[in-house]
Amino acid sequence: MRFMKLPCLYIVIPCYNEQIVLPQTIPMFVNKLNELISSETISGSSRVVFVNDGSKDDTWAIISRCAEQEILVEGICLSRNRGHQNALLCGLMTVKDKCDVTISIDCDGQDDINAMNDMLEAYRKGADVVYGVRSSRKTDTFFKRFTAQTFYRLLKGMGAEVVYNHADYRLISSRVLNDFADFKEVNIFLRGMITLVGFNSTSVYYERHERLAGKSHYPFKKMLALAIDGITSLSIKPIRLITSLGAFLLIFNLSVLLIGSIVFLCGNPVSSWLMTLSASALLCALQIIAVGVVGEYVGKVYLETKARPRYIISESTFKNND
Q1: Which has the minimum average pLDDT: 57-66, 128-137, 143-152?
Q2: How many CA atoms lie within 13 Å of 10's alpha carbon, on the beta-carbon side?
Q3: Which listed residue, 119, 127, 282, 307, has the most CB atoms within 10 A of its CB?
């Protein structure tokens, strides 16, 4: 258990085209921060930090205006859209030296902000990482529930170390973030990478609500892309599976050839053209899949060797830039 001064908390919230929901969720996050400060759970130097991920609407105007009016609110604006994971990483890396602990959360109001109390209690007891985990998916449609469950099972099956039903609602201590800063890869998948740092971790469970306004920016297409990024960033298991499948098909085709030869030598007719066509089609499909999988990894290596910055900050409202 930690016995120390009140921890400084920075709540990091990535935003992309959220002008509809921000007027409702900004006061919600500010009120929660005030509640935690008033109860002497966190220090008065704690802040809410909104990261604008190159939004095309008035998201940044709303954030910057609120930062001028509310001392507890800060804002960071990226030079262009870099994706949710990079925007979140930008926020975490920006505040890691300004606070003792961070909590990342989406800005749509779906995640239960009261779970922060349990996260901070777990931190006080010694946890450096606390995962926010959905206790159920009863508010999801059947399609959303099915694709989400498939997403987590696929990641786990492919060797990515993830917490089931956990997205990006989590508490991370500053000492974990300081070590995580040494992870320099361009292709990032935070919910799988944070587990690689180690340190004491635990989970808190909460009910997820309906989105307060607007619509989700994570349709099935983006969820699938995120799964592919997660798998190829954290695991080489797909390549090993392709190798195993190739070995199996080689044995299978040799067996078919052997059986066909035996049948032919016994004087029975064999439809050789059908067997040849089937084997060729199967091998062709395997080759295309194998080239695609290997190409995905080659593409990742290509991007890593360029070592381009993962984000560029164009504006910031921080009153104290020490």
Answers
A1: 143-152
A2: 24
A3: 119
